[in-house]
Amino acid sequence: MKNKKLLSIVALITVFALLLTGCAKGGGGGQAQGGKTTITFAHWRPEDTEAFKKIIAKFEEQNPNVKVEMTITPSANYIANLQGMLLSGEGVDVFTTFPGSQFETIYSSNAYSDLTNEGFVKNFEPALIKAGQKDGKQYAIPYQLVYNIPVYNKALFAKYNIEVPKDWDSFLKASETLKKNGIIPIAFSIDVSPQQFINSMIMNNAPEEDIFQKLEAGQTKLTDEWFIKSLGALKELKDKGYFQQDVPGTKADGALALFAQEKAAMLAAGSFSMATVKKQNPNIQQGLIAPITTTEDKAVWKGIHTSTFMLGINAKSKKQTEAKKFIEFLSNVDIASQYANETGQMVTVKGAKYSTPELQESGKWTSVKTRFQPMYTFKKEEIKTAIVTAVQKIQQGISVEQAAKEAQIEVDKVIKK
Amino acid sequence: MKSRRILYLFLLPALALYIMFFVIPTVAALGLSFTDWNGISSNIPFVGLDNYKELLKDNIFHKSVGNNVKFTLVVLTAQTALSLVFAIFLMKNSKLNVVYRTVFFLPMVLASVSIAFIWMFTYDSNIGALNVMLGNLGLAKQSWLGNSKIAIYSLAFAQIWTHIGQVMIIFIAGLQSIPENLYEAARIEGASAWQTFRYVTWPLLIPAATIVVALTTIQSFRAFDLIFVMTDGGPAYATEIISTFLYHNAFINHRFGLASASAVILMLIIAVITYTQSKLLASQNKGM
Questions:
Q1: Less CB within 10 Å around the terminal CB: N or C of chain A?
Q2: Is B46 helix (H, G, I), strand (E, B) or coil?
Q3: Chain A interface disruption, residue of B125, B132, B153, B155, most A CBs within 10 A
Q4: Are strands A133-134 and A137-138 parallel, antiparallel or unpaired?
Q5: Do the Cβ atoms of A407 and A399 come closer than 8 Å?
Q6: How far, in Å, CA of A163 to CA of A160, rounded?
Q7: Is residue A12's pLDDT more than 70?
Q8: Which of residues 205-244 of B touch A (CB under 8 A)?
Q9: Chain B neighbours among A 9-48 (CB < 8 Å)?
Q10: Complete edge-to-edge strand list for the sheet that includes strand A264-267
């Protein structure tokens, strides 16, 4: 009997021990076997996995005492995972973020290490890494350069003798020609396109770059002329039938497929989608096109750019030296060029060399007067959502005034908070 | 007496897990609902009841509650009725019925994200099977997920398709536990099919129905993955429900406090509805 009781107690203790072991924090990426230091690198681009694997292998070859573990979470869930990793203190060492509200939140939580005095900062184009600065200090370094303007099919434009439009009238005329020839002028998705396309609509209707900061400060409203005109331009395109049928029911993949299958001549996305389109249709010739909503002489801006995929180091990481080494490695021009050419994404590193036709095409835009994406200048995500929702409502057939009014109600709520 | 103590000790692992994975997160959510935490910062400002006051005035939250109620009612009514009908037809343990039951249950073993993609393709307005079928019949195509008036019902249908097999199995188990001699007695008394169902089957099926109703209500109120993947609450909040509202506020707007307050409200709604349902069904059972 005694033995049985003893056995029971031992069994209980074993169960508890197993539970505790199971619930205990994992390795955490500290000192790995063989004296190696393991750093974790978190980002949201599964499409970059192979390219990063090769780059990491090179890094580990040059730095035999450092091992890099890559954690990839698709962008929809990325911030949720990142929050968890940052909360656990040492859950992540090097991580990426979007500019704007995501950067602001992480900065205000003191989760970034200061990179201002690191030598590798000089490897980047100074104008393209401003999105990662705060109070004169560099906390994150944008690695990718993206143009947030529609992609167009060069062959289709040539087939119907359409020149790249330089003002609103010629943009409408080009769309009409395409429509008459049975081509969908613009493929527009309800999830990705609203945030991308509205930038082009706004850029010359509100040319001042701090327009959304003014909106957040309550100094301008979405019911003001600049936004009404911007939504009005979008509404005009919708009313004239220049988007595919059922935009509200079309997701990003569907819109991209319409463009890749050459059923649509323009895709309301950005340079980031060119590599995926190319995979679906290797023969397609792509270019970038910025809808100008004014006359050519009044167009202050010719396009939109964003420097994103911002590399940062967790302030709580105990492996600061190794983490910095990794970012320094990524800032090497050869490595950055390798990354760009294998992923189809332009980079912010000085002197990067592009070998694919799509990157060379995007590269032409570096000499064009483009403006930083207005939608990434918000500190509060709710305001961005209000604008995206206004665009979605236009696509659902709601009037410009009503959509703008409802969006401003949401903005007012955020300002009051 | 001592051996009893040992037996209580055996409860400890389960209790520890319950405390760790249910009690602590619930208490933490309640605590966080009184803060304006952004989800990362070590600074967690206390704001008292501000989040609850904000939710009371927030029209998007109101819309998400309304959508959730609509979604739950559609799923609860249609899924319970259909699964009961299927259960009655497939109750007997014939080989063919076992095959049918397996087919109905199959969606339950698929990952919810896979189901979401299947339905996204089915509902696609250009290439989706549903619109192709409508087109072949000469009927107008629909924007199943893009039209704000029908999107929530399209999602409810996908939810029903996913869970109907599970609910049907519960009803079949309930039906099979009813003694055959009661049906024989009803037959001898000359009861019609409806009277047999009304006075024999249904009263004895109430325990199973209670489980079904509670399970469906909870599943529908907590539905997240299907909606998140298929519409993400859109277009323009037409399919936003409390769980997607919660997610958007916690992980997109970085407002964990507000998200926790909505989680507390969701928990209370589910608790009140489930309690009321079980009381109603129990009273119906007593009245039989």
A1: N
A2: strand
A3: B125
A4: antiparallel
A5: no
A6: 9
A7: no
A8: 228, 232, 234-237
A9: 9, 12, 15-16, 19, 23
A10: A184-187, A264-267, A151-153, A286-288
The tokens of A55 are what? 């780059």
Residue of B nearest to A379 (CA): B253
The amino acid at residue A311 is L
Q: What are the residues whose beta carbons fall under 8 Å from the beta carbon of B67, sequence distance 6 or more?
A: B152, B237, B238, B239, B240, B241
pLDDT confidence tier of residue A101, bands split at 50, 70 and 90: confident
HEC string for chain A: CHHHHHHHHHHHHHHHHHHHHHHCCCCCCCECHHHCEEEEEEECCHHHHHHHHHHHHHHHHHCCCEEEEEEECCHHHHHHHHHHHHHCCCCCCEEEECCCHHHHHHHHCCCECCCCCCHHHHHECHHHCHHHEECCEECEEEEEEEECCCEEEHHHHHHCCCCCCCCHHHHHHHHHHHHHCCCEEEECCCCCHHHHHHHHHHHCCCCCCCHHHHHHCCCCCCCCHHHHHHHHHHHHHHHCCCECCCHHHCCHHHHHHHHHCCCEEEECCCHHHHHHHHHHCCCCCEEECCCCCCCHHHCCCCEEEEEEEEEEEECCCCCHHHHHHHHHHHCCHHHHHHHHHHHCCEECECCCCCCCHHHHHHHHHHHCCEEECHHHCCCCHHHHHHHHHHHHHHHCCCCHHHHHHHHHHHHHHHHHC
Contacts of B20 in chain A (CB under 8 A): 23
What single letter denotes the amino acid at residue A397? G
**What domains can you pick out in chain A, each with its CATH number?**
33-146+306-367 (3.40.190.10), 151-305+369-416 (3.40.190.10)
Asked whether residue A17 carries a pLDDT value surpassing 50, the answer given is no
Closest residue to A105, CB basis, from B38, B58, B248? B38
* Per-residue pLDDT reduced to its tens digit, A137-159: 999 999 999 999 999 999 999 99
Q: Is the pLDDT of residue A13 over 90?
A: no
Residue A204: the pLDDT is 95
All domains in chain B, ordered by first residue: 58-287 (1.10.3720.10)
Render pLDDT for B163-182 as a digit per residue (tens, 0 to 9). Answer: 999 999 999 999 999 999 99
- pLDDT, tens digit, for every residue of A274-324? 999 999 999 999 999 999 999 999 999 999 999 999 999 999 899 999 999
